[in-house]
Amino acid sequence: MALIVQKYGGTSVGSPDRIKNVARRVAKFKAQGHDLVIVVSAMSGETNRLIALAKEIQAQPDPRELDVIVSTGEQVTIGLLAMALKEQGVDAVSYTGAQVKILTDSAHTKARIQHIDDANMRADLTAGKVVIVAGFQGVDAQGNITTLGRGGSDTSGVALAAALKADECQIYTDVDGVYTTDPRVVPEARKLKTITFEEMLELASLGSKILQIRSVEFAGKYNVKLRVLSSFQEEGEGTLITFEEDSTVEKPVISGIAFNRDEARINVIGVPDKPGIAYQILGPVADANIDVDMIIQNVGQDGTTDFSFTVPKGEYPRALKVLEEVKKHVGAREVSGDDKICKVSIVGVGMRSHVGVASTMFRTLAEEGINIQMISTSEIKISVVVDEKYLELAVRVLHKAFGLEQAV
Ligand code: ASP
Ligand code: MG
Fold it and tell me: Is 308 close to ligand 1, i.e. is its CB under 6 Å away?
Protein backbone atom coordinates (compact mmCIF):
# COMPACT_ATOMS: atom_id res chain seq x y z
CA MET A 1 0.00 0.00 0.00
CA ALA A 2 1.38 3.35 -1.01
CA LEU A 3 0.52 7.01 -1.19
CA ILE A 4 0.40 7.92 -4.84
CA VAL A 5 -0.18 11.29 -6.48
CA GLN A 6 -1.55 10.92 -10.00
CA LYS A 7 -1.86 13.81 -12.42
CA TYR A 8 -4.14 13.58 -15.46
CA GLY A 9 -3.65 16.05 -18.31
CA GLY A 10 -6.18 17.85 -20.47
CA THR A 11 -6.62 15.15 -23.11
CA SER A 12 -7.08 12.49 -20.41
CA VAL A 13 -10.07 14.43 -19.04
CA GLY A 14 -11.14 15.89 -22.39
CA SER A 15 -14.71 14.49 -22.41
CA PRO A 16 -17.22 12.97 -19.96
CA ASP A 17 -16.30 9.50 -21.24
CA ARG A 18 -12.64 10.11 -20.66
CA ILE A 19 -13.35 11.42 -17.17
CA LYS A 20 -15.28 8.23 -16.45
CA ASN A 21 -12.30 6.30 -17.75
CA VAL A 22 -9.95 8.16 -15.38
CA ALA A 23 -12.38 7.39 -12.55
CA ARG A 24 -12.25 3.67 -13.42
CA ARG A 25 -8.48 3.77 -13.36
CA VAL A 26 -8.43 5.59 -10.02
CA ALA A 27 -10.98 3.14 -8.59
CA LYS A 28 -8.70 0.26 -9.59
CA PHE A 29 -5.75 1.74 -7.68
CA LYS A 30 -8.02 2.46 -4.75
CA ALA A 31 -9.20 -1.16 -4.72
CA GLN A 32 -5.56 -2.23 -4.48
CA GLY A 33 -5.43 -0.38 -1.17
CA HIS A 34 -3.46 2.73 -2.15
CA ASP A 35 -4.05 6.22 -0.83
CA LEU A 36 -4.63 8.51 -3.77
CA VAL A 37 -4.38 12.23 -4.44
CA ILE A 38 -5.47 13.05 -7.97
CA VAL A 39 -4.49 16.28 -9.72
CA VAL A 40 -6.30 17.23 -12.91
CA SER A 41 -5.90 19.77 -15.70
CA ALA A 42 -8.75 21.53 -17.43
CA MET A 43 -10.46 19.67 -20.28
CA SER A 44 -8.27 19.95 -23.38
CA GLY A 45 -8.68 23.27 -25.18
CA GLU A 46 -10.48 24.85 -22.23
CA THR A 47 -7.62 27.02 -20.96
CA ASN A 48 -7.06 28.36 -24.48
CA ARG A 49 -10.77 29.06 -24.81
CA LEU A 50 -10.83 30.99 -21.54
CA ILE A 51 -7.77 33.05 -22.46
CA ALA A 52 -9.32 33.91 -25.84
CA LEU A 53 -12.54 34.90 -24.11
CA ALA A 54 -10.66 37.22 -21.76
CA LYS A 55 -8.86 38.80 -24.71
CA GLU A 56 -12.15 39.62 -26.36
CA ILE A 57 -12.85 41.93 -23.45
CA GLN A 58 -9.35 43.20 -22.78
CA ALA A 59 -6.54 42.86 -25.33
CA GLN A 60 -3.96 42.75 -22.55
CA PRO A 61 -5.92 40.94 -19.84
CA ASP A 62 -5.50 42.14 -16.29
CA PRO A 63 -3.34 39.38 -14.72
CA ARG A 64 -5.31 39.04 -11.50
CA GLU A 65 -8.62 38.76 -13.33
CA LEU A 66 -7.15 36.43 -15.94
CA ASP A 67 -6.21 34.04 -13.13
CA VAL A 68 -9.76 34.23 -11.78
CA ILE A 69 -10.99 33.23 -15.23
CA VAL A 70 -8.53 30.53 -16.32
CA SER A 71 -8.54 28.76 -12.97
CA THR A 72 -12.18 27.82 -13.56
CA GLY A 73 -11.16 25.20 -16.14
CA GLU A 74 -9.66 22.98 -13.45
CA GLN A 75 -12.48 23.73 -11.05
CA VAL A 76 -14.86 22.06 -13.49
CA THR A 77 -12.80 18.89 -13.94
CA ILE A 78 -12.25 18.28 -10.21
CA GLY A 79 -16.00 18.39 -9.62
CA LEU A 80 -16.71 16.12 -12.58
CA LEU A 81 -14.10 13.59 -11.55
CA ALA A 82 -15.36 13.53 -7.96
CA MET A 83 -18.86 12.83 -9.27
CA ALA A 84 -17.61 10.12 -11.61
CA LEU A 85 -15.88 8.39 -8.70
CA LYS A 86 -18.96 8.60 -6.52
CA GLU A 87 -20.95 7.07 -9.39
CA GLN A 88 -18.55 4.15 -9.21
CA GLY A 89 -19.01 3.82 -5.49
CA VAL A 90 -15.71 5.42 -4.50
CA ASP A 91 -15.78 8.20 -1.90
CA ALA A 92 -14.01 11.28 -3.22
CA VAL A 93 -13.73 14.97 -2.41
CA SER A 94 -12.56 17.81 -4.64
CA TYR A 95 -10.47 20.83 -3.68
CA THR A 96 -9.49 23.98 -5.51
CA GLY A 97 -5.95 25.22 -4.91
CA ALA A 98 -7.24 27.76 -2.40
CA GLN A 99 -9.27 25.14 -0.53
CA VAL A 100 -6.24 22.89 -0.04
CA LYS A 101 -4.31 25.96 0.58
CA ILE A 102 -1.60 25.80 -2.00
CA LEU A 103 0.08 29.05 -1.03
CA THR A 104 1.94 30.86 -3.81
CA ASP A 105 3.61 34.20 -4.34
CA SER A 106 1.55 36.92 -6.03
CA ALA A 107 3.09 36.70 -9.51
CA HIS A 108 -0.20 36.26 -11.36
CA THR A 109 -0.14 33.89 -14.37
CA LYS A 110 3.29 32.54 -13.35
CA ALA A 111 3.12 32.16 -9.59
CA ARG A 112 5.44 29.93 -7.61
CA ILE A 113 4.32 27.56 -4.90
CA GLN A 114 5.63 28.48 -1.45
CA HIS A 115 3.80 26.13 0.88
CA ILE A 116 1.14 23.44 0.84
CA ASP A 117 -1.12 22.79 3.79
CA ASP A 118 -1.62 19.03 3.92
CA ALA A 119 -4.03 18.87 6.90
CA ASN A 120 -7.30 18.61 4.95
CA MET A 121 -5.91 16.10 2.51
CA ARG A 122 -4.46 13.92 5.28
CA ALA A 123 -7.77 13.86 7.15
CA ASP A 124 -9.63 12.83 4.00
CA LEU A 125 -7.12 10.13 3.14
CA THR A 126 -7.38 8.75 6.67
CA ALA A 127 -11.15 8.70 6.22
CA GLY A 128 -10.64 6.55 3.12
CA LYS A 129 -11.46 9.21 0.53
CA VAL A 130 -9.80 9.88 -2.78
CA VAL A 131 -8.61 13.50 -2.76
CA ILE A 132 -8.96 15.42 -6.02
CA VAL A 133 -7.05 18.67 -6.42
CA ALA A 134 -7.27 21.31 -9.15
CA GLY A 135 -3.94 21.62 -10.93
CA PHE A 136 -2.40 24.86 -12.19
CA GLN A 137 -3.69 27.04 -9.35
CA GLY A 138 -3.02 28.34 -5.88
CA VAL A 139 -3.78 31.27 -3.66
CA ASP A 140 -1.53 34.08 -2.46
CA ALA A 141 -1.21 35.38 1.09
CA GLN A 142 -3.93 37.97 0.40
CA GLY A 143 -6.37 35.32 -0.80
CA ASN A 144 -6.08 36.11 -4.51
CA ILE A 145 -6.37 33.19 -6.93
CA THR A 146 -3.11 32.59 -8.77
CA THR A 147 -2.02 30.26 -11.59
CA LEU A 148 1.33 28.61 -12.19
CA GLY A 149 1.96 29.16 -15.90
CA ARG A 150 0.93 27.02 -18.87
CA GLY A 151 1.35 23.33 -18.22
CA GLY A 152 1.43 24.13 -14.50
CA SER A 153 -0.64 21.13 -13.40
CA ASP A 154 2.49 19.00 -13.67
CA THR A 155 4.08 21.24 -11.08
CA SER A 156 0.97 21.03 -8.88
CA GLY A 157 1.24 17.24 -8.98
CA VAL A 158 4.92 17.17 -8.11
CA ALA A 159 4.53 19.81 -5.39
CA LEU A 160 1.69 17.86 -3.78
CA ALA A 161 3.75 14.68 -3.93
CA ALA A 162 6.63 16.50 -2.24
CA ALA A 163 4.40 18.01 0.46
CA LEU A 164 2.71 14.67 1.20
CA LYS A 165 5.98 12.71 0.92
CA ALA A 166 4.19 10.47 -1.56
CA ASP A 167 5.79 7.23 -2.66
CA GLU A 168 5.43 8.18 -6.30
CA CYS A 169 4.12 10.95 -8.54
CA GLN A 170 2.60 9.56 -11.74
CA ILE A 171 1.98 11.92 -14.63
CA TYR A 172 -0.64 10.46 -16.96
CA THR A 173 -0.64 11.92 -20.42
CA ASP A 174 -1.41 11.01 -24.03
CA VAL A 175 1.98 9.42 -24.66
CA ASP A 176 3.15 6.32 -22.84
CA GLY A 177 6.50 7.69 -21.76
CA VAL A 178 9.58 9.60 -22.83
CA TYR A 179 10.97 8.53 -26.20
CA THR A 180 14.46 8.68 -27.68
CA THR A 181 12.96 11.21 -30.08
CA ASP A 182 9.57 12.10 -31.56
CA PRO A 183 8.19 8.87 -33.12
CA ARG A 184 6.44 10.98 -35.77
CA VAL A 185 9.88 11.88 -37.12
CA VAL A 186 11.67 8.60 -36.43
CA PRO A 187 9.33 5.60 -36.39
CA GLU A 188 12.09 3.51 -34.77
CA ALA A 189 12.13 5.82 -31.74
CA ARG A 190 12.12 3.81 -28.55
CA LYS A 191 10.42 4.43 -25.23
CA LEU A 192 12.94 4.88 -22.44
CA LYS A 193 12.49 2.85 -19.26
CA THR A 194 14.39 5.46 -17.31
CA ILE A 195 15.89 8.88 -17.88
CA THR A 196 17.82 11.01 -15.42
CA PHE A 197 16.53 14.28 -14.06
CA GLU A 198 19.28 16.21 -15.74
CA GLU A 199 18.48 14.70 -19.11
CA MET A 200 14.78 15.37 -18.62
CA LEU A 201 15.54 18.97 -17.69
CA GLU A 202 17.58 19.45 -20.86
CA LEU A 203 14.85 17.84 -22.96
CA ALA A 204 12.19 20.02 -21.34
CA SER A 205 14.19 23.18 -21.92
CA LEU A 206 14.86 22.09 -25.51
CA GLY A 207 11.16 22.10 -26.23
CA SER A 208 9.93 18.65 -25.27
CA LYS A 209 6.44 19.37 -23.99
CA ILE A 210 5.94 16.19 -21.99
CA LEU A 211 6.53 17.85 -18.63
CA GLN A 212 6.52 21.46 -17.54
CA ILE A 213 10.15 22.27 -16.83
CA ARG A 214 9.36 23.64 -13.40
CA SER A 215 7.85 20.34 -12.37
CA VAL A 216 11.07 18.52 -13.26
CA GLU A 217 13.14 21.06 -11.29
CA PHE A 218 10.81 20.67 -8.36
CA ALA A 219 10.96 16.88 -8.43
CA GLY A 220 14.75 16.97 -8.59
CA LYS A 221 14.97 19.37 -5.69
CA TYR A 222 12.57 17.51 -3.41
CA ASN A 223 13.50 13.98 -4.39
CA VAL A 224 10.09 13.10 -5.79
CA LYS A 225 9.91 9.79 -7.63
CA LEU A 226 8.39 10.83 -10.92
CA ARG A 227 6.94 8.63 -13.65
CA VAL A 228 5.35 9.49 -17.01
CA LEU A 229 2.65 7.11 -18.25
CA SER A 230 -0.21 6.91 -20.72
CA SER A 231 -3.75 7.35 -19.49
CA PHE A 232 -5.02 5.46 -22.53
CA GLN A 233 -3.19 2.19 -21.95
CA GLU A 234 -4.14 -0.28 -19.26
CA GLU A 235 -0.65 -1.63 -18.74
CA GLY A 236 2.84 -0.26 -19.03
CA GLU A 237 5.44 1.17 -16.71
CA GLY A 238 5.99 4.39 -18.61
CA THR A 239 9.28 6.17 -18.06
CA LEU A 240 10.75 6.59 -14.61
CA ILE A 241 12.78 9.73 -14.03
CA THR A 242 15.74 8.69 -11.95
CA PHE A 243 18.25 10.46 -9.78
CA GLU A 244 21.37 8.64 -10.77
CA GLU A 245 22.46 6.64 -13.68
CA ASP A 246 21.45 3.08 -13.06
CA SER A 247 24.88 1.55 -12.75
CA THR A 248 23.67 -2.00 -13.31
CA VAL A 249 22.65 -1.29 -16.88
CA GLU A 250 25.02 -0.26 -19.63
CA LYS A 251 23.39 2.98 -20.73
CA PRO A 252 23.90 4.38 -24.20
CA VAL A 253 26.00 7.52 -24.41
CA ILE A 254 23.08 9.48 -25.79
CA SER A 255 19.59 9.14 -24.34
CA GLY A 256 17.58 11.29 -26.67
CA ILE A 257 17.42 13.72 -29.55
CA ALA A 258 15.36 16.87 -29.25
CA PHE A 259 14.55 19.41 -31.91
CA ASN A 260 12.91 22.78 -32.15
CA ARG A 261 11.54 24.39 -35.29
CA ASP A 262 10.56 27.52 -33.47
CA GLU A 263 13.80 29.47 -33.70
CA ALA A 264 15.26 32.13 -35.96
CA ARG A 265 18.87 33.27 -36.24
CA ILE A 266 20.08 36.86 -36.16
CA ASN A 267 23.58 38.00 -37.11
CA VAL A 268 25.11 41.29 -36.20
CA ILE A 269 28.19 41.66 -38.36
CA GLY A 270 31.17 43.99 -37.96
CA VAL A 271 30.55 45.33 -34.48
CA PRO A 272 33.38 47.15 -32.68
CA ASP A 273 35.21 44.58 -30.53
CA LYS A 274 35.19 46.33 -27.17
CA PRO A 275 33.87 45.81 -23.64
CA GLY A 276 30.10 46.13 -23.24
CA ILE A 277 29.22 45.20 -26.79
CA ALA A 278 27.28 42.05 -25.94
CA TYR A 279 25.30 44.05 -23.44
CA GLN A 280 24.61 46.84 -25.93
CA ILE A 281 23.28 44.30 -28.42
CA LEU A 282 21.33 41.99 -26.12
CA GLY A 283 20.17 44.59 -23.58
CA PRO A 284 17.62 46.16 -25.95
CA VAL A 285 16.48 42.66 -27.02
CA ALA A 286 15.83 41.76 -23.40
CA ASP A 287 14.12 45.11 -22.81
CA ALA A 288 11.78 44.24 -25.68
CA ASN A 289 10.97 41.03 -23.77
CA ILE A 290 12.36 38.76 -26.46
CA ASP A 291 13.88 35.49 -25.25
CA VAL A 292 17.36 34.78 -26.54
CA ASP A 293 18.55 31.20 -26.76
CA MET A 294 21.90 30.37 -28.38
CA ILE A 295 24.49 33.14 -28.40
CA ILE A 296 27.76 33.08 -30.32
CA GLN A 297 30.42 35.76 -30.53
CA ASN A 298 33.44 35.31 -32.73
CA VAL A 299 37.02 36.11 -31.86
CA GLY A 300 37.59 39.69 -32.99
CA GLN A 301 39.71 40.59 -35.96
CA ASP A 302 40.84 44.07 -37.02
CA GLY A 303 38.93 45.56 -34.12
CA THR A 304 35.54 44.18 -35.10
CA THR A 305 33.65 40.99 -34.40
CA ASP A 306 30.46 39.14 -35.42
CA PHE A 307 27.66 38.24 -33.08
CA SER A 308 24.87 35.71 -33.66
CA PHE A 309 21.97 34.54 -31.57
CA THR A 310 18.61 32.83 -31.89
CA VAL A 311 15.15 34.05 -30.90
CA PRO A 312 11.69 32.46 -31.11
CA LYS A 313 10.44 32.46 -34.70
CA GLY A 314 7.41 34.54 -33.79
CA GLU A 315 9.65 37.29 -32.43
CA TYR A 316 11.93 37.38 -35.47
CA PRO A 317 10.45 40.45 -37.19
CA ARG A 318 10.34 42.38 -33.94
CA ALA A 319 13.90 41.37 -33.06
CA LEU A 320 15.15 42.54 -36.48
CA LYS A 321 13.51 45.90 -35.90
CA VAL A 322 15.16 46.26 -32.50
CA LEU A 323 18.51 45.31 -34.04
CA GLU A 324 18.23 47.91 -36.81
CA GLU A 325 18.20 50.53 -34.05
CA VAL A 326 21.05 48.82 -32.22
CA LYS A 327 23.04 48.75 -35.44
CA LYS A 328 22.99 52.53 -35.70
CA HIS A 329 23.78 52.89 -32.04
CA VAL A 330 26.78 50.56 -31.83
CA GLY A 331 28.01 51.14 -35.37
CA ALA A 332 27.62 47.60 -36.72
CA ARG A 333 28.20 46.94 -40.42
CA GLU A 334 25.21 44.73 -41.07
CA VAL A 335 22.25 43.03 -39.45
CA SER A 336 20.92 39.93 -41.16
CA GLY A 337 19.16 36.73 -40.21
CA ASP A 338 17.30 33.64 -41.22
CA ASP A 339 14.04 32.28 -39.91
CA LYS A 340 14.23 29.04 -41.91
CA ILE A 341 16.37 27.27 -39.37
CA CYS A 342 15.91 24.69 -36.65
CA LYS A 343 17.83 23.42 -33.68
CA VAL A 344 18.72 19.76 -33.23
CA SER A 345 20.18 18.57 -29.93
CA ILE A 346 21.58 15.34 -28.59
CA VAL A 347 21.28 14.78 -24.84
CA GLY A 348 22.91 12.24 -22.58
CA VAL A 349 24.71 12.06 -19.24
CA GLY A 350 27.00 9.49 -20.88
CA MET A 351 28.69 12.39 -22.66
CA ARG A 352 30.53 13.20 -19.46
CA SER A 353 32.49 9.97 -19.57
CA HIS A 354 32.78 9.42 -23.31
CA VAL A 355 34.93 11.24 -25.81
CA GLY A 356 34.14 11.66 -29.48
CA VAL A 357 30.44 12.33 -29.11
CA ALA A 358 30.65 15.74 -30.77
CA SER A 359 32.80 14.42 -33.61
CA THR A 360 30.35 11.57 -34.26
CA MET A 361 27.55 14.11 -34.43
CA PHE A 362 29.40 16.43 -36.79
CA ARG A 363 30.65 13.61 -39.04
CA THR A 364 27.13 12.16 -39.30
CA LEU A 365 25.71 15.52 -40.38
CA ALA A 366 28.62 16.15 -42.78
CA GLU A 367 28.06 12.80 -44.50
CA GLU A 368 24.56 13.95 -45.38
CA GLY A 369 25.82 17.32 -46.60
CA ILE A 370 24.08 19.16 -43.77
CA ASN A 371 25.77 22.45 -42.99
CA ILE A 372 26.03 23.42 -39.32
CA GLN A 373 25.36 27.11 -38.76
CA MET A 374 25.80 27.34 -35.00
CA ILE A 375 26.91 25.01 -32.21
CA SER A 376 26.40 25.20 -28.48
CA THR A 377 27.20 22.68 -25.78
CA SER A 378 26.62 21.93 -22.14
CA GLU A 379 28.03 19.08 -20.09
CA ILE A 380 25.32 16.70 -21.27
CA LYS A 381 24.06 18.31 -24.49
CA ILE A 382 25.21 19.38 -27.93
CA SER A 383 22.92 21.57 -30.02
CA VAL A 384 23.36 22.59 -33.62
CA VAL A 385 21.45 25.03 -35.79
CA VAL A 386 20.82 23.80 -39.33
CA ASP A 387 18.58 24.71 -42.25
CA GLU A 388 15.03 23.70 -41.33
CA LYS A 389 14.67 21.61 -44.47
CA TYR A 390 17.18 19.15 -42.96
CA LEU A 391 15.39 18.70 -39.64
CA GLU A 392 13.90 15.24 -40.25
CA LEU A 393 17.00 13.97 -42.02
CA ALA A 394 19.32 15.20 -39.27
CA VAL A 395 17.25 13.66 -36.49
CA ARG A 396 16.96 10.36 -38.36
CA VAL A 397 20.65 9.95 -39.15
CA LEU A 398 21.70 10.97 -35.64
CA HIS A 399 19.21 8.55 -34.11
CA LYS A 400 20.84 5.80 -36.13
CA ALA A 401 24.43 6.94 -35.62
CA PHE A 402 24.02 6.79 -31.84
CA GLY A 403 22.28 3.42 -31.95
CA LEU A 404 19.14 4.71 -30.30
CA GLU A 405 16.81 2.27 -32.00
CA GLN A 406 18.50 -0.67 -30.31
CA ALA A 407 16.79 -1.96 -27.23
CA VAL A 408 18.94 -1.86 -24.11
N1 ASP B 1 -4.80 23.92 -17.98
C2 ASP B 1 -3.51 24.53 -17.90
C3 ASP B 1 -2.92 24.71 -19.29
O4 ASP B 1 -3.55 24.36 -20.27
C5 ASP B 1 -2.57 23.82 -17.01
C6 ASP B 1 -2.20 22.42 -17.44
O7 ASP B 1 -2.90 21.82 -18.24
O8 ASP B 1 -1.20 21.91 -16.96
O9 ASP B 1 -1.84 25.22 -19.43
MG1 MG C 1 0.84 19.37 -19.99
Answer: no
In DSSP notation, 29-74 reads HHHTT-EEEEEE-PSTTHHHHHHHHHHHH-SS--HHHHHHHHTHHH
Ligand nearest to the CA of 48: 1
Residue ID of nearest Cα to ligand 1 atom 4: 47
Tell me the pLDDT tens digit for each residue of 104-158: 999 999 999 999 999 999 999 999 999 999 999 999 999 999 999 999 999 999 9
Atom of ligand 1 nearest to the CA of 74: 1
**Ligand 1 binding pocket includes 135 (Cβ within 6 Å):** yes
pLDDT digits (tens, 9 = 90+) for 158-190: 999 999 999 999 999 988 899 999 988 999 999
Burial class (CB in 10 A: 0-12, 13-18, 19+), 235: exposed
Instruction: Give the mean pLDDT of 227-236.
Output: 88
Pocket flag, ligand 1, residue 153 (CB < 6 Å):
yes
